[in-house]
Amino acid sequence: MGLSKRVSSWSVEEVLEWMQGYHPAKMDTLQKAIIKHAISGRVLLRLKDHHLELLGVEAEEQQQEILQDVLLLKVQEEVNELNDICSECFSS
Question: Which letter, b or e, does each residue of 43-58 get, where b requires 16 or more Cβ atoms within 10 Å of its Cβ?
Fold first, then answer.
């Protein structure tokens, strides 16, 4: 998957690409909902279990799988932001 930019900058199409790569079995349920609700990367990072339920992911186990992967994306986003801050500090 060629998703190299910040998750918070992802378009709806990039969220779909990520979801297809990590949760292909849930794509039937999620694809229409992601498009309908314009789930961008910024929105993806803020999803909670009740949001997933509203999007059609009703099984708690499936919600937790998705939320774990979203948590990893959040951590990656934070690390990238810290790297940016550190590189700005050292380049001054």
Answer: bbbebeeebbeebebe
